[in-house]
UniProtKB/TrEMBL annotation:
Listed Pfam families: HDOD
InterPro entries linked: HDOD (IPR013976), RNase_Y/CdgJ (IPR052340)
Protein name: HDOD domain-containing protein
Start and end residues of each HDOD domain: 12-209
Length: 271
């Protein structure tokens, strides 16, 4: 990994007091849904993002969600924490995704689609693991923000964009330009912010799950499959879906469950 990216990570601002409080509540087994709702009720940006997602067709709650307490009750503490952290972290970073040929809004949507696909798929595989993987799926592309910044600073946007646009292996392009994949950069970001080691490791190996330790190999593989199906350059394209389904089949998953999740999320994303 280039020293300039490492220096950029070391200089990242600290997490907000709201996120620190959310993490504290989440880690306390005696905390309740009311505690979580209270933690976010004074942060308008977090509330706006949670309500936006709660009322999105991707989750289909069937009625308008009007306040934080309703949203937290429906999502639960784990997913509420994930949404709050995910959106807050992206606000902390300067987002210019031009090297990846997408806008910051498109980047945010792709992150949300990856998270939604992961949850829709994995809740039928293992509900507990689905909740753990939701946050990782939502945040696993965070490193692209720093890689894009590095590419821009080195005046390599045109060549990088050209390679990304048609690539079926984005991680390989990232490695060539920054000496690291997005997963490796993202893992270092969350190590800097003090996230737990399993979360960091599953993202670190998300571009190369075969090399992951056995304890987190399944998690890294699931993340890799999701980012294969919803890559930043060809989300839900026929080619991306076929690649992802093949990876799932090779890994021993029930492919029908994944196909159902793809159909659900892809259809809802167009509403």
């Amino acid at each position: 990994m280039k020293s300039s990216i490492i220096d950029g990570i070391k200089s990242l601002p600290p997490l907000s007091t709201t996120i620190i409080e959310i993490n504290r509540i989440y880690a306390d087994e005696n905390s309740t849904i009311k505690d979580m709702a209270k933690a976010i009720e004074h942060d308008p940006m977090i509330i706006a993002n949670i309500l936006k997602i709660a009322n999105s067709p991707l989750y289909g709650f069937g009625r308008e969600i009007k306040n934080a307490a309703q949203a937290v009750s429906l999502f639960g503490m784990n997913m509420t924490r994930s949404i709050a952290i995910g959106n807050s972290i992206k606000k902390l970073l300067n987002v210019d995704m031009q090297p990846y040929c997408i806008t910051s809004e498109e980047f945010a949507k792709i992150s949300s689609l990856q998270a939604a696909l992961m949850f829709s798929w994995y809740k039928k595989v293992d509900r507990r693991k689905a909740e753990e993987l939701y946050l990782a799926a939502f945040l696993q592309e965070t490193g692209k923000i720093l890689i894009a910044s590095e590419v821009i600073q080195n005046d390599e946007t045109i060549s990088f964009s050209s390679e990304i646009e048609n690539s079926n292996n984005i991680a390989m392009v990232e490695k060539a330009y920054s000496n690291a994949t997005c997963g490796e950069v993202t893992a270092l970001v969350f190590k800097h912010w003090g996230f737990d080691s399993n979360f960091i490791e599953m993202i670190k190996y998300s571009d190369n799950p075969a090399a992951a330790p056995d304890s987190i190999k399944e998690y890294s593989m699931a993340l890799n499959i999701v980012k294969t199906i919803v890559p930043v350059n060809k989300p839900f394209s026929d080619m991306s879906i076929n690649f992802g389904l093949k990876k799932a089949a090779d890994a021993g998953y029930d492919v029908a469950l994944l196909e159902d999740a793809i159909s659900h999320v892809a259809d809802k994303s167009e509403e």
